[in-house]
Design a protein that fits this description.
Layout (H helix, E strand, L loop, with lengths): L7 H8 L6 E4 L6 H9 L4 E6 L2 H10 L7 E5 L5 H4 L4 E7 L4 H5 L25 H7 L2 H12 L4 H11 L5 H11 L2 H8 L7 H11 L2 H11 L4 E11 L2 H17 L2 E3 L9 H6 L7 E7 L7
Parallel strand pairs: 1-2, 1-4, 2-3, 4-5
Antiparallel strand pairs: 5-7, 6-7
Helix pairs in contact: 1-2, 7-8, 7-11, 8-9, 12-13
The chain binds S-adenosylmethionine (SAM).
Length: 296
Amino acid sequence: MRHKSVLVQEVIDYLKVDPKGVYLDLTFGRGGHTAALLDRLTTGRVIALDRDKSAIEAGHERFMNESGKLQLMCEKFSSVSEIVREPVQGILADLGISRDQIEDANRGFSFQRQGPLRMTMDAKQALTAKEIVNHYDERQLADLIYQFGEERRSRRIARAIVRERPIRDTTHLAEVVEKAVPRTSFRQRHKSQIHPATRTFQAIRIAVNDEIGEVEKLLATAPLMLAPGGRMTVISFHSLEDRVVKHSFRQWNTRGVLEVLTRRIVRPSTEEIAGNPASRSAKLRAAERTELEWPQ
Ligand SMILES: C[S@@+](CC[C@H](N)C(=O)[O-])C[C@H]1O[C@@H](n2cnc3c(N)ncnc32)[C@H](O)[C@@H]1O
């Protein structure tokens, strides 16, 4: 199944799209948000980034007829301020990974599909899940699962992984985690139906792709790329990312550079969640660039 974009109307509303403006889509994915932006532009343009080459290649094909209005780049968003030098009217980041990435077994993101221990968004990247799972020491592994997976049983899981090494593939890893944290006790503890390996897989993916570091670096500079009155929207899918966005927006607000528009996070409607259950954990925050000049 293809990736379904989340909170599209909300993003468009918060960005208050100017048909002549320049917009940055930092997480192009399948291009759902980019398509919604392009629909509203006349002489405006979208500059879209994704660190996944296959997303950019598919984008060139899908948006062949929009080449005058759309520039696609295979880059990490943490370096966007070095790549794009013009002021922009809007910035969108829809964090995490796409359904297309999860469902491609060869990428190794899913515990439900047998695949290699990879989990890299950028296929050329040297650090993979295999290195972390089979070579990090038990302490490092436990800390990472605790920090990025918010998994309280991290020590137990790390011990089980180290004992079972070498871990062959995603299915093997999921089995080892499930054995270490049986479903019944996991469900009682988390009062949820999620698979016991969900948090461990999330943690390893975040570490492999340095996802929190990427968001921190992005938010340290991106607000300064906005023209006065320009807006930035960020969609995050777990509390660690959302915390970074919230604190960073607050800091820029205190400095007088941004005005936060979302005092409370915006979530998908019940209709959206019914049509796309994967959207249920999405959280949107938005802010507007003030007139204040800031030395760069
Ligand atoms: C949730 S999907 C975006 C979906 C997209 N908004 C759509 O409507 O199709 C996130 C995308 O961001 C990309 N991505 C994640 N972190 C990135 C980073 N640091 N730099 C560039 N792209 C990144 C992923 O490769 C993935 O394709």
